[in-house]
Structure formats: C-alpha cells, structure tokens
Design goal:
mainly alpha; 434 Repressor (Amino-terminal Domain)
C-alpha cells in the first residue's frame, strides 16, 4: 500500500491550536480577521511560517512556550522511520526504534520530574514571600492600638491574606504562656483575617481550621474551657475540609499538639494521648521533645508517674545537649516531680542542682521557689526533717504573700505531716489557723475548700493525724486536675503522692 503524503508539522499544529480552543475554521478566521480560505490553506495545503504560527497562537492566548512544545512534540511523533546504518556496528532499524522509544520515555519523564520540582520551588518561594510580607504587616499591626486592629484588617485588603492570618495565630501562641487576654485577641483577629481572605475554599478551610485551633488554645489558657471545646471542634471540622496543599504549608502537627493540650485539660486523657501521638509523628524533630513533655504531663494527670518518667527520659535523650533552657527546665522539673511521686527521692534530689542553675539563668523567681519546694519534699523523703520543715515554711511564706491558695494549702499540709509525726499538735493547730485566708480567696474549688475545712476542724480539736494530712495532700494534688473530685472519693481511689504543681507546657 503506497504511503500518503506526510502531513506538515506546523499545519497540524495550527489545527491542534484551533481545536484546543473548540473553534471551527470559520470561527478562527473571524477571530484572526482573515479569510476562511487562508485558514484552510494553512491547515491542509501549505505550512504556515513558524512566525505566523506563533502570531496566531498568541491571538488564541497560547504562550510562546506552549507553541514550541506543540511543534516539538508533533515533529518527534512524525519523524521518518529510522533506517539502519551502513556500518556493521550501526544499530539496525528495529534497534533504532527501541533507542527512540527509550529516549522518548526518558525525556518525557525528565520533563515531568523537572516541572514538578520547579512547581514545588515556585510554591516555596511564594510561601516565603507571603510570610515575609505578613511579617512586615504584623509589625504594622503591632504598632496599631489594639482597639483599632480589627478595623484595620476589616478595611484594608493588604491584611486579608492567609499568611497574615497564620502570623497572627502564631503570635497568639507566643503570648499564651503569660498574656491570656492578648493571646485571645490576636487569635480571634487571625481567624477574622482567614474569613476575609479570598481564594480556594479548601485552601481557606485549612487556614480557618488552623487559626481556630489557636483561638481554642487562647481560651484554654484563659480558663474558658467550654468555649475552647466548641472552637476546637469547629477547628477540626474546618481542618478536615482543608486541601492537601495548605496542610503542607501550615504546621499540621500543631493542630494535633494544641488539641492534645485541650483534651488533657478537659480530662479526656485517652484522646489527649492519641492527639499528642499524632502530633509527634507529624512534627519536625526539634519539636518532638516538647510534645513528649506534654505526653508526660498528661500521664502525670492520669496518675501514671512511672510511664511519665519513661517519656521524660526519652525527651531528655532527644533534646541532648541542645541549649534550650526552657525545654530543659520543663523536662527536668517534671522528671523530678514524677520521681517524687514514685518516692525515688535520691534520684529526684540528683536533678535539683541543674534545675536550680536553670532557674537562676532564666531569672524565674517562681522556678526557684518550686525548686525549693522539691528540695523540701526530697529532704522529707530522705528523713532530713529539720531541713524539710524549713523548706516548706519558706515556700509557704512565698505563696501566702502572692495569694497562691492551692500551692499554699499543699505546702502547709506537707509541713503538717512532719509536725504530726513529731507529735506537735499545737503547731499544727496554729498552722491550720494560718490557712484561714485561703477560704476567702478564689484559688480553690468548693470541694477542696470542704476538704480543708475538715482538716482545720480536726486540727483545732487536736484530732488531726499524719495519715489524714497525707491523704489530704494526695487529694489536693489530684483536685488540681479534677476540681469536682470529692475528698471521700480519694480514699478509695488510686493513691499517688503529691508534690509541687506540675510544670505543664502549653
């Protein structure tokens, strides 16, 4: 069968460009203001020049590169069949076909790979650019009066971007450790920016979910637990709708991490541990030790000090020699507390010099007081009664001057244990009388008040015993994490030892 005349590459390219826009020859002629005859002529009879093809392609909104690719692809597809060489070592025609096939596959694969790499690089560049701009805009908002910030983001479109929403949420997380009101203001502002931002719905769902998680976190530290739970549930719904693209841009591990903190404070411990485990799997290596500390604190609240110690030792091993004083404190302090729960007082005492050093270096007065409290507990556990009584008295005085009722009550009862063991009922009666002020404060829940009232009555009548004081210490420690717990319930529950309030991280 004789071969037909081989089609011309640029003619086929013109037809492909026209059909790619869904146009007839007449519609193309009208678009280009040329005759139908000319369009038909270039498609079937004579090839248009390359310049003419590029010109017409541009009129149809094709880029120069798209036209080049089309001509190149058609040219490769319509090349003459390979012929064998004349030399005995030249490839045969079938071998040449195979060579072309392999080269074509490799070329196409390389182009696709390179394109993906360039797209990824472009996205990374755009993300960094957006975050740099968000940093500049945040500094502008930071200088704006708080009461005017919402008006600014509502009015000026330059603030209404995903990156500004993210930056406000992250600033909220920084403020949450000691400025609950500021943290909530910034988190809510970030969520409002996410609502105002334009773009793909699935992309923005991720931004809304992320910022809502920080709103929930700010409410948690402000002790607005009910609303924190509502915001967290809404955040998880939004995050579930998010596109895979935004989940790669925003730190998804933080959604799980902060969710774990909230579930812990809601006493939904299994959910908290599950969420923190997911965060650990998603987080960068440098964040894992912090997440492990949160897991340990959750286990401590569940009265599982042995497991908590194992997790903290893992965190210490991962943190290694890194110079993060805050993280080193969190690991060391919680480790000492849990060793105390296990009555491993010598091991706990061995951590105290480093904790004292960290507290001095960070100039944290309360940290130094908590080290003194731990020291007193270790002294008591090791039989150094004089030193322990002096230590408990020191921290009691500090907590009283700052009206820290829960801590004052715990330290007072720990000292009472020593006094009752020594038969000093008169001193315990005086100590119980000194605790009167805490009933006028807002630092204790009703159930804890009732338990302490029982102790004060027993002390006044010199019927208090060391065993009663110990049980009250255990109860008050547990009541920090379960305000509705009744003292009677503690007697039949699991008996864990108490200590200084846990150094839970956010």
């Amino acid at each position: 069968m004789p071969l037909k005349r081989r089609p011309k590459v640029r003619s086929l390219a013109l037809t492909a460009l026209r059909r790619g826009r869904g146009m007839t020859e007449q519609e193309l002629a009208n678009e280009l203001s040329v005759s139908l005859w000319m369009v038909n002529y270039y498609e079937t009879e004579a090839e248009p020049s390359y310049e003419k093809l590029v010109e017409w392609g541009k009129a149809l909104e094709y880029s120069l590169e798209e036209v080049k690719w089309l001509v190149f692809g058609l040219g490769q597809a319509l090349r003459p069949a390979p012929v064998g060489g004349t030399s005995p070592v030249d490839p045969t025609p079938s071998e040449m076909r195979l060579i072309r096939e392999i080269a074509g596959r490799a070329g196409r694969a390389f182009v696709a790979l390179l394109e993906r790499a360039l797209v990824k690089a472009a996205r990374t560049w755009r993300v960094r650019k957006a975050r740099r701009e968000a940093g500049r805009l945040w500094r502008e908002l930071e200088r704006t009066l708080p009461e005017l910030r919402r008006a600014a983001v509502e009015t000026f479109s330059r603030f209404q971007t995903w990156a500004v929403a993210e930056r406000l949420a992250n600033e909220s997380a920084i403020a949450a450790s000691d400025q609950a009101a500021r943290a909530l203001e910034l988190a809510e502002l970030g969520y409002r920016v996410a609502e105002l931002a334009g773009g793909d719905e699935a992309f923005l769902s991720g931004v809304k979910g992320y910022t809502l998680v920080l709103v929930a976190n700010a409410r948690r530290v402000a002790n607005q637990m009910h609303r924190a739970g509502e915001d967290s549930d809404r955040a998880l719904v939004e995050w579930g709708r998010a596109s895979s693209e935004i989940k790669k841009i925003l730190p998804g591990w933080r959604v799980k991490d902060l969710g774990g903190s909230l579930r812990r404070d809601q006493r939904r411990f299994p959910e908290a541990l599950e969420s923190l485990q997911e965060a650990q799997l998603l987080a960068p290596a440098n964040e894992v030790p912090r997440i492990l500390v949160k897991r340990a604190v959750t286990l401590e609240h569940m009265f599982e000090p042995e497991q908590a110690v194992k997790v903290l030792e893992e965190a210490a091993a991962l943190n290694g020699g890194k110079h993060d004083a805050g993280l080193a404190w969190d690991i060391g302090f919680n480790l000492a507390v849990n060793l105390g729960h296990l009555e491993k007082f010598r091991e706990a005492a061995a951590t105290l010099p480093r904790l004292r050093e960290l507290a001095f270096a960070r100039r944290k007065e309360l940290h130094l007081v908590r080290v003194a409290w731990l020291t007193a507990r270790c002294d008591a556990g090791l039989g150094r009664t004089i030193e322990a009584r002096a230590g408990f008295e020191q921290v009691r005085h500090y907590f009283a001057t700052r009206e820290m009722a829960a801590d004052y009550a715990l330290a007072s009862l720990e000292r009472a244990v020593l006094d009752l063991e020594a038969g000093r009922h008169g001193e315990v009666r005086s100590l119980a009388e000194e605790m009167k002020w805490i009933f006028l404060s807002q630092g204790l829940e009703p159930e804890a008040h009732a338990a302490l009232a029982l102790f004060r009555e027993a002390a006044a009548q010199e019927r208090a015993t060391a065993d009663l004081a110990r049980r009250l210490v255990r109860y008050l420690y547990r009541a920090q994490f379960d305000p509705r717990l009744r003292f009677e319930a503690e007697e039949t529950g699991r008996q864990g030892l108490a200590g200084p309030e846990s150094g839970a991280t956010d």
